[in-house]
Amino acid sequence: MIFDMRTYSCRPGTINAQLKLYQDYGMKPQQRHLGQPYFYCVTETGTINTFVHIWQYKDAADRATRRAAMMADPEWQEYMRRSGELGALVSQANQIMTPAAFFTPKG
Fold first, then answer.
1. pLDDT at 106
2. Distance CA 21, CA 58 (A)
3. CA-CA distances (angstroms) from residue 78 to 21, 42, 71, 83, 91?
4. Domains and CATH numbers, the chain
5. Measured between alpha carbons, how far is 38 from 17 in angstroms, rounded to an integer?
6. How crowded is residue 55: how many other Cβ atoms within 10 Å of its Cβ?
7. Is 14 within 8 Å of 67 (Cβ atoms)?
8. Alpha-carbon gap, residue 63 to 60, rounded angstroms
9. CA angle 70–41–95, rounded 5-degree value
């Protein structure tokens, strides 16, 4: 089991527009291919204007297959186009993680 943690930072004042765009255009195609996220949140303290989501996969091959299908989906491509036009995102960091030996992930 692996987890893909993605952290995105937005220009000040644009995070709500980015999240609304995702809700309206990106969530449906992403969840069609990746399933429900393990976690999706907005940072309240620390590095503000940031949101994080975590996706759970069986292994690296499962992740690659599901993400390739998502990237080929015309609805996802439309979301990506609109996101680029919005211009809210300024940085992205991805981390692939595995659970600690004593942790049993749900699902």
1. 78
2. 29
3. 11, 23, 10, 9, 20
4. 2-97 (3.30.70.100)
5. 23
6. 21
7. no
8. 5
9. 60
Cα(104)–Cα(57) distance, rounded to whole angstroms? 14
**pLDDT tens digits along 74-100:** 999 999 999 999 999 999 999 999 999
Alpha carbon distance 51, 60 (integer Å): 23
Q: What distance in Å separates the CA atoms of residue 42 and residue 53, rounded to the nearest whole number?
A: 9
As separate numbers, helices (DSSP H) first and strands (DSSP E) second, the chain gives 4, 4
C-alpha 6: how far from its chain's center?
6
Tokens (6 digits) for 103:
């942790």
Say what the pLDDT of residue 107 is.
Answer: 65
48 is written with which tokens? 């503000």
